[in-house]
Amino acid sequence: MRIYLVRHGQSELNVNREVKFTTPDHAVPLTEKGHQQADGAAEFLVKHLMDESMKQSDTMRFRIWSSPYRRARETTEHLRQKFSEDPFFSEAPLANTRRFRYDVREHIMLCEQQFGLFDGVPDDQLELEFPREHKHYDLCEKHNGRFWARFPLGESRFDVACRIHQAFGTFHRDNDKHGINTIIVVCHGVTLRAFVMMWLHKSPEWFEEEPNPGNCAVRLLQDGEDKGYIFKGFPKNG
């Protein structure tokens, strides 16, 4: 089974942190450059999957899974458009007779880390706005490490890893019951790293040392092995 993990394109939050003061995290859109980046990643995946499918004798069935956040949805839409423009692929029910076919779905567990009470509050204002909660979180982070420290009313990175693991049953069923041998997962930096960690049984220390990928980077997991970033993506402000 092949899994392509794709980080969303550059979002408005990536280039202007003040966006989070006025826009809920789930509603943050791509920038114009983010749309261009998503186009670039989509073009790469169309060519790559076409090349991969030519090596196979069986039908290629793949499914695109997206986070429901707007920036991931918009990135996914670029993938859908590029695949739909190529006659080699067919967006159709997977029981369709076309050899190379796919469909697109969303999974809520692929969303970004939940920052809870601290969401939308500038870092330098946290101690003033929420002195007790900030002190508690700061102690947890210093004592236990960032991976385990949970944001008040939000998630820790450990929590993200746990919910990502819960989604794996869906992907295994795609493969076992529906013959889907390839999935594309469009998500977020922390979510992507948590996916790799849990799928390949890596440690929390690995997670903390692993940097977030560039926008629209594509990482390939194949047959239980990490093939790394086959498309490097773009720097956050690049």
Question: What is the structure about, briefly put?
Answer:
The protein folds into 2 domains: 1-12 and 39-113 and 166-179 and 205-238, no CATH class; 117-154, no CATH class. 42% of the residues lie in helices and 17% in strands.
Can you tell me about this structure?
With 238 residues, the protein is of the alpha/beta class. The protein has 2 domains: 1-12 and 39-113 and 166-179 and 205-238, no CATH class; 117-154, no CATH class. The chain is 42% helix and 17% strand. It has helices at residues 12-15, 32-54, 70-85, 126-129, 131-144, 157-178, 189-199, 204-209; strands at residues 2-7, 60-66, 90-91, 100-106, 182-187, 218-222, 225-231. It has a 7-stranded mixed beta sheet, sandwiched between helices. Helix 6 packs across helix 7 (189-199). The radius of gyration is 19 Å and the shape is globular. The two termini are 32 Å apart. The model has no long low-confidence stretch (mean pLDDT 90).
